[in-house]
Design brief:
Elements: H1 14-31, H2 34-58, H3 65-73, H4 77-103, H5 113-124, H6 142-159, E1 162-165, E2 168-171, E3 174-175, H7 181-192, H8 198-213, E4 220-221
């Protein structure tokens, strides 16, 4: 994200979207503007969908990305993609979580898809507004005020999965190309196994990293 936020210049980064949502909410409260609340809800839902889509890409080989994108563009595409790649995503994220505990100064959390779905459903009520009455569309109605709270809760949820860096937020994406061969092999073993023993996985990763690099960082974060 550029260091100076520009309301009129959209940037394809979650950092920009998070600031944009916060500005929309500030303006909504300042001017009692209901439309800004709805725009903020739309942006928040976009971040949740983008995060889930990025996780699908992270979980698959680049040779599959064209098919993943085609699937996502279809009807209920994101939902279908999540169902198809659910197990693989869990393996990727749980390995990432264990790895960061060993070699980074912060840890990654396994993404809570259930909570994400809940927020997406709640936000949809502020995107599809054609059934709402004039009374409900007043700024101080229970409906609008509840929506403001939902957007704030969603942003807090989103931020809990991102690391604050300088002027922006970075999601915990591990660049597996920087792993040592031993760690890559351990990832393949974990990916192809039925085990969900993340503590044992952590111990294996720690042993490999200590033997090869004396505990030094062995992976980059993008």
């Amino acid at each position: 994200m550029s260091k100076q936020y520009d309301y009129h210049k959209r940037e394809p980064h979650t950092s920009w979207q998070i600031v944009h949502i916060e500005v929309l909410l500030e303006e909504a409260l300042k001017h009692e503007n209901v439309s800004f609340v709805f725009y903020a809800a739309l942006e928040a839902r976009n971040i949740l969908e983008q995060t889930e889509f990025d996780l699908i890409l992270m979980s698959t080989d680049k040779t599959e990305w064209e098919n993943v994108i085609a699937l996502a563009k279809g009807k209920s595409g994101l939902e279908k993609g999540n169902q198809k790649y659910k197990a693989l995503k869990y393996k990727y994220q749980s390995f990432s979580e264990a790895l960061t505990k060993v070699i980074l100064d912060f840890s990654l959390k396994i993404y809570d898809y259930k909570a994400s779905d809940k927020f997406q459903s709640l936000l949809a009520d502020y995107i599809h507004i054609y059934t709402r009455t004039p009374e409900e569309l007043q700024f101080y109605s229970d409906y609008v005020q509840r929506g403001i709270g939902i957007v704030y809760e969603t942003i807090a949820f989103i931020k809990s999965y991102y690391v604050k860096q300088d002027d922006g937020y970075v999601f915990g994406l591990l660049n597996f190309n920087t792993l040592s061969e031993a760690l890559k092999k351990e990832f393949e073993n974990w990916k192809n196994s039925v085990s969900e023993d993340t503590e044992a996985l952590y111990e294996k990763i720690k042993k490999i990293n200590d033997e090869q690099s004396g505990g030094a960082k062995a992976v980059l974060v993008e």
